């Protein structure tokens, strides 16, 4: 696995007065009970939709709300640590691929031979 896909960087933008958060996260999209499901094991975020596109749009919206709420309440780094992220001086690293694959949801997918698509998604939110 390419290590560059596992990095999260935080950069301050002094000119605009905002902080830019960049995340590369893995999410997995599969069908269950007639719906599409997007699941991110490194954050334990799940979202559904009637179509593939609706599912992804809903996931990205939920992810943005999650990050904004955590930043507003000063809990982002603590929450990431609780999910197994490593907090370094200039970057955040999500849990290893092996750890992510060991979550209960991923085990269920493997045990039930559910077909899924893995998406490595760059995320960027300016707050």
Structural description of this entry:
- By secondary structure, this protein is an alpha+beta fold.
- It has a single domain, classed as 2-Layer Sandwich (Double Stranded RNA Binding Domain).
- It is built from four helices and seven strands.
Low-confidence stretches: 1-16
Strand portion: 35-45%
What is the averaged pLDDT score?
Answer: 81
Task: Report helical residue fraction.
Answer: 25-40%
Q: State the CATH topology.
A: Double Stranded RNA Binding Domain
Oligomer: single chain
Number of helical stretches of at least 4 residues? 4
Shape: globular
Give a brief outline of the structure:
This protein has 127 residues and is an alpha+beta fold. The protein is built from four helices and seven strands, in the order ββββααββααβ. Strands 1, 2, 3, 4, 5, 6 and 7 form a seven-stranded antiparallel sheet that branches.
């Amino acid at each position: 696995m390419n290590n560059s896909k596992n990095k999260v960087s935080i950069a301050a933008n002094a000119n605009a007065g905002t902080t830019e958060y960049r995340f590369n996260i893995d999410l997995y999209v599969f069908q269950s009970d007639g719906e599409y499901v997007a699941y991110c094991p490194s954050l334990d975020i799940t979202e559904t939709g009637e179509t593939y596109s609706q599912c992804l749009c809903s996931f990205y919206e939920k992810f943005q709300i999650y990050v904004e709420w955590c930043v507003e309440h000063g809990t982002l780094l603590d929450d990431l640590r609780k999910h197994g992220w490593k907090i370094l001086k200039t970057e955040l690293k999500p849990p290893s691929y092996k750890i992510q694959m060991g979550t209960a949801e991923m085990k269920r997918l493997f045990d039930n031979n559910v077909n899924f698509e893995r998406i490595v998604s760059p995320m960027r939110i300016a707050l």
